[in-house]
Prior knowledge:
The protein is mainly α. The chain has helices at about 10-40, 45-55, 60-75.
Amino acid sequence: MKLNNKGVGGVILIIVLIISMLIGGFTWPYTINTWLVYLGKQPSVMFWHGMLLGLCPGLGQLSIPLAVITWIASMFI
């Protein structure tokens, strides 16, 4: 029996994009809002802003390391 692999690549791409959106939705608002509060500004970045940033190539991959750096820096600030 032959397996039908038509469309599997598209499904995998959609799954990766959804995962990137979810990770960006949590990490970008945390990172940006933490630094905004540190600078004395109102936190204004919402979940859906982070989801859009998570879709940007390059920026999406930076979200986790920047969130970790922010978390470590917030222990000393």
